[in-house]
Amino acid sequence: MSATAIRLPFSQSDGLARAGRHVALAIRKSQDLAVMFVYVHGVERLCAAVGHTQAGRVLDEFYDELGAMARDNDAIERIGDRKFAVLLHGLRNRGHASLAAQKVQRISQSIASAHVERRPLKVSIGVVLCPEQGTDEHEIMRFAEIAALDCRRRSESVSFYEASSAYELFMDWGLEDRLDKALESGDLELRFQPQVCCEAGTVTSAEALMRWHEPEIGDISPEVFIELAESTGQIGRLTDFAVQQACRYLSTWQEAFPELTIAVNLAPGLIQNLEILDVLKSATSIWGVRPGGLTLEVTENALIADREASHEVLTRLRDFGTRVSIDDFGTGYSSLAYLKEIPADELKIDRSFVMGMLTDAGDRKIVEHSIGIAKSFGLSVVAEGVENAETLEALRSLDCDIAQGFHVCKPVTADEFEAFCRSRGRETWQ
Predict the structure, then answer these.
(1) What is the rounded radius of gyration, in angstroms, for the C-alpha atoms of the chain?
(2) pTM to 2 decimals?
(3) Could you say which of 180, 277, 303, 415 has the lowest number of CB atoms within 10 Å?
(4) Does the pLDDT of residue 402 top 90, yes or no?
């Protein structure tokens, strides 16, 4: 691997999130990028043949060899025990991407054959070309996941994302029914990413992020199952689940951390529907938590899709006491005249600007102006994508309120989040 290729150990990062941020930067810089999701099959057979310890070494070796094929500015991320993201710059067509995918296949075969005779290690590779097939990092990552899952469904080695893939995947694998069962069985769960005061470093809040481990299929990324829920009408149940779980955890934490707030993402299709108010009233009543303990995050673009309806819903939410945050700020097209009328408490600066602010003068200006705009409207400011101490210090100098990102903490379980809060000092909550 070249000295400047980007690859971080799985144990030190949430690879899926880092891969998404890498894609976001490539999109911002209008760079050609091939995004590959690589699933490794046959791990169970490998464990049986050589033992779990040696099988782990085989997967580590595969990861290292993927890194060795990377060029300057490429990225290799481990996003699960047997799942990898390969992000290759400058691949402009399917032919080039196919050659790269074949190289990944050869790496898997050579590594497996070096350890066992029958080569039980196989890979499924889902490929998306950017910007040809999308210009949004969340969309690109979702497409790559769908293409890789579709590979497994059709027992093929390489698959490029096609618009029909998602529908066929959902139907053939019965993901709609599986999601229904997951809502009942506990296969869905929340992770919490802490948000801290830029000045004091104390925990103020957390963003709740949903995860799904399907027993037969494995980990299914949020981009896939949220898309599924929206297309099948299950997004309401998914949101109700997230709100109920957030309130459940708040009820256990409110004595130790009385000022803690938990942010839950609200799907664009729900921001014009007053039923979300009933969901909040029910959850806060059942778990005995204050409405102000919840923040609903809504994207800038979702707000402008139907201004009148969304304005009414947000007003009712704030009248109830729930906080409202404008997410992904800077990526939409709302005017300042409309922004000043939005019933909101908080503005979240999109992570792609925060990640680039140390090296790109334009990104820094966007961050600086976003903070100024928010302050002028009386909104608190959260910066996402804080990856290092230098970025945090720059945000402090710009009077940003809250920082969120891997420099602070990756998304963690409820128990880990509680421990993180306590490690930052109980004076935060007094």
Answers:
(1) 22
(2) 0.71
(3) 415
(4) yes
